[in-house]
Here is the input.
Amino acid sequence: MEQGIIVWSDSGVCLMHNDRVYDVLELRPSDLTVGTKREDFLGAAVNRGEITKSQMHDAQQRFSAQRPFHFDRQLPSGRVVTTNIRPVRGGGSVVTLTDVTIARRNEAELTKAKAAAEEAHLTAQVALVEQQVQQGTARILAELDEWLQTCKSLDELFLIVRTFMEKTLPGSEGELYIYSNSRDVLDGACGWGHEKLHDHIVPDSCWSLRRGRAYTYSTETVSFHCEHVNAQHHDPAPDDFICVPIIAHGDTVGLLHVRLKDKCYLDTNVLDAHAFTLKCGEHVSLAVANVKLRDELRDQSTRDPLTGLYNRRYFLETMRAQIALCERKNSQFSLIAFDADKFKSFNDNHGHDAGDMVLRAIGTKLTEIFDKGEIPCRYGGEEFAVIVPDTDKAAATVAAERLRTAIESVTIRYGGKALPPVTVSSGVATFPGCGMVPQDLIRQADDALYQAKADGRNCVRVAPDLE
Here is the structure.
């Protein structure tokens, strides 16, 4: 038989056994004979380290209780022998001993293989989820980038940032700040998650701006609140926020501040809100840089560098756009054309630098007077024009007269002394009465301007409607 057999009497004495038991348990013939006491046999097993004392006591109790049971022996050679005990009718027990070393090894290897397979499956699932989240985050950032790169102005950019942050990090709060022209403060550009936008903050109030890199505050690390966060009187104070400098062409132009006070964002495609915020900062930085560059290039192409007014190119484009708009709306607009009186003699008598001072002064006064949607332009040399939307001849004449008196009252100082007073002559033409195309309107306004010159200068004349 493959199994070793031992028969114990009711009193715990060996009644019989087969020779196989010696091979299975690695025993000598003297270790087990008919008449050997079970207690001595189990004690020897404890001494050899095959079973523990606790197992021996438990086995003795179970023998006495006449109940079937089993346990494993770990032989000194490393083999495993399982011991099965069955009570017999009339008292006593039959013990079978089976070498299960290979079976146990196979079971252990199978269990290990199953555990490894389960771990690999779990790892694959986690990797799949992370990949899906990363793909989702990448899609969000790609969509954000697409919108940011197609916006035409900073106002559109601010709207896009606010909308995306609300949608992608629900439960968060934050603001986007942009440096003012003076660079002494950052103005609040847009915010989300709360009703009141902080008007401005000073650069020294933010750790990220002072350190020149992104800054994360967390109660779990050694970190400190930014002063601009404390100044906003949050209740309760945020436990987790991040500040990201907005950098355009190597220059810090703003700040993205995000407070992660709720955990709702974990339900979205964003797995790591901090990393997502940093990525948003990078994309916003690039978009701000592009918009600013686009604005600079557009200003260079549409602004007069001396006066800061729109140039001839922009003037003609706007004229065409106004005509198309008025034709659709069946409305009207007016054109005021004027120039500085006797400007050539002014240059001859006082120099071209003084003439430039006069042109700049006229440009400044135009900007001050026309700030309700009018478009003041430097048409060329000392010639200027103002497009006045939704205005008839009477209102345009009043505006031209206001401009004339304002320029006449300007005192221009050059070389430590006041220059002679500057006056202008103006002509007014209105669409559609004075023409249906830009050339006709400009010609009519110029004719009225020449009439003002002929009438003694420093006055306003109005072009008649065409027949």
Notes: The chain has 13 helices and 18 strands.
